[in-house]
Amino acid sequence: MVALPLPLIAFGFGILSVLSPCILPLIPLIAAYSTRTSKITPLTMAIGLSISFALMGVLASIFGSIFQRYKLVLQIAGGLVIIFLGLCMIFELLEQKIHAIIPGRGITSTGIFKNVHGTGTAGGLLLGFSLGIVWTPCIGPLLGTILTMVAVEGDIVYGAFLLLIYSLGMGLPLLAIAYTSHFSLKPFQKYSMAIKRLSGVILVLVGIYFIYNSITIYGF
After folding, report:
1. Cβ(113)–Cβ(46) under 8 Å?
2. In degrees rounded to 5, what are phi and psi of residue 115?
3. Secondary-structure breakdown of the chain: helix, strand, coil percentages, each rounded to the nearest 5
4. CA quadruple 188, 191, 197, 198: dihedral positive or negative?
5. I need a surface site. Which of 17, 36, 58, 140 has the fewest CB within 10 A?
């Protein structure tokens, strides 16, 4: 059976995360803000974003490495988690509860910049790192799927690598908007909800693959 190309999936999930309804409208705003402070800020912000996700990948890998002796159980459980996350995206399960616990104002308003001090390299790194944390409720299912895959693998270096690839998928549109005058995400805004549900379907299929592949390779 053909193995899933996890780096390619991670990159694709990064792009899909940017296209989520609560992040897509903010990308031009963040790009414009970062460019006004310094020409290098968009790049350092993308680096800060990558660092925050890479750390998440390392933590997930450490957790998964502890349970590698239960590889079959870990993979099946991971597949079930991915399916659940996909269903959450399709039917918007838990979304209202998440926004009730974590208010959306820090994600959906310019208030996201108020606690960032400094410009250039330091300010960009801090802003990017903060965005990696603040955006988690919005991109939870997609990010959760990548972290689940990383935990199943249990390889710390590979886990950090996959999350760096994921952040690259998120960072490229940001850099494209910041450094060019011709790149626009507006055509995607009309279909952002459809893209979100399509992403959910993809997650369900990935979860089914995980479970089927685990049973095929390891058996019961």
Report:
1. no
2. -95, 5
3. 80, 0, 20
4. negative
5. 36
Distance between start and end Cα atoms, the chain:
18
Nearest to 189 by CA among 12, 30, 26, 13: 26
Those residues with Cβ within 8 angstroms of residue 203's Cβ, 6 or more apart along the chain or in another chain = 82, 83, 85, 86, 89, 141, 142, 145
The one-letter amino acid at 106: G
The residues spanned by each domain of the chain are 6-218
Structure tokens of 36? 């006004």
- Please give the structure tokens belonging to residue 116: 């960032």
For 85-144, how does the pLDDT look when each residue is reduced to its tens digit (9 = 90+)?
Answer: 999 999 877 655 555 544 444 444 445 555 555 555 677 888 889 888 888 888 889 999
